[in-house]
Amino acid sequence: MNRLKVFVSSTCYDLSQLRTDLQEFINDAGHTSILSEYNNFPVNPQLSTIENCIKSVKDNADILILIVGNRYGSMLDNGKSITNTEFLTAQEKGIPVYCFIEKRTLHALDFWRDNKDGNFDSFVDNKKIFEFVENIRNDSKIWTFEFERAQDIIATLKAQFSYLFKNSLRIKSIFENQIPEYFKLSLSNQALKILIEKPDYYEYAFFIQTWVDEIEKKRDFYNNIKYALLHEPKHYVHTLKEIPTWAQERLASLLNISSSLNNLINVALPEFINEPGIPSDLRGLNYVSRTYANMFERFVIWKIDTNSTILIEKHQKISKSLSNMAKNLINEVWDAPFQSFKAFSEAAKRYSKGERNIQVVANLKLTLDPDEMKNLENDIEALKIDFERDI
Questions:
Q1: DSSP state of 315
Q2: pLDDT tier at 363, thresholds 50, 70, 90
Q3: How far is Cα 307 from Cα 321, in angstroms, rounded to an integer?
Q4: To the nearest whole percent, how much of the chain has pLDDT over 70?
Q5: How far apart are CA 174 and CA 151, in angstroms?
Q6: Is the dihedral of CA 196, 197, 201, 202 positive or negative?
Q7: Among candidate residues 222, 196, 194, the one with its CA nearest the CA of residue 207
C-alpha cells in the first residue's frame, strides 16, 4: 500500500514517550511512521548511524516532523547534531517540515540572545541548540510550533495534515487541468511547481529553472571535458597537405555552432519571453533551454572529435591546440545557467522583502581561448615551414 511516510526527527532518550505517542498517532491515521528506534526503520548494515538516517530521509520520507527539546544530542565531525542533519537533508529534498520546539527551550532562547556566554546547563545540554533554533526560525524561514506535551503536537498535526490534504487536492486539480501534457512529461518538479504556484515573474523563474535543469542533464559531457577523455578517432589526416583543409573545416564547424547559439539567445529567446504582465511562450522558453543544452553537447563533441583526430606524428599537437580553442567557450556556456540562477534567486529574495526595480543581467560570452589561438598560430607556422620544404 502506498501510504504517506512520516519521518520523526528528534533526540530519542529524553523524548522516548513522546516519540511513542507520535508513532501511534501516525500509524492510527493510516500513514507509515519512520522512527529510528523501531524495527521497521530501514537499515543498511554497511552504513553508519548517521548515514542510515540521512538515507532514510532521502529515500523514504514524504514529511519530516522535527522536534526540538532541551537536548542537542551527539555531534558529528562538522559540529551539527544528527537531528540537525536530518532537518537539512529534508530541506534539500524539498519535503514539508513541521517543526515543534519545547516551550521551556523557547523561553530560555530569549535569555540566551541577551547573554550568549551565560550558563544554561539547567535548561539545555548544549547551547548549540539555541543556534539551531535560530537557524530554523530565521535563516530557514520554517514556521515553528511550541509544545509542552505530545498531545500539543498531535492536535497541531491533525489540523496541518488536513490543510496539506486540501492543498494537495488543489494542486492536483491545477496539474490535471491547467498543465499541458507536454510539460507533465518533460519538466522537473521544481519547474512544475513554478507553473502551479505562478509567483511574480514566474515566466522568468520558469525559464531559468528549465535552463539549469537541461544543462544539468549534460553533466556527463562536462565531465568528459574536465577529465580530458578521448574516443575512437573519426578523422585521419595522413599528409601535410590535408592538415590545413581539415583545420579550416573544424574551425568552420565550431563557428557554425557558436553562430547558432548566438541566434538562439539573441533572436529566439526575446521572441518567447515578454515584459512582466504580458504572457510569455512557455513552450518556446523550454525549447530554448533544451536547445541550449544540446548546443553545449555539440561543443563538447566538437572538442573531443578534434582532439581525437590522428595527424601525422610531427604535427599531432595541432589537434590539441585547435580543440583547446573551445575550452573557454565550453566553460562559459556551462556556467551561464548556474550564474543566472544564482543572480535570479538573490533578486527574488530582495523582491520578497519589498525591494522593486531590480535588474538581473545574464551575461553569456562566447570567446575562443586567446592562448590556445596563439599556440595554434605557432603550430601552423611550423606546418608551413615543413610544407615549403616538401615543395
A1: G
A2: low
A3: 8
A4: 91
A5: 35
A6: negative
A7: 194
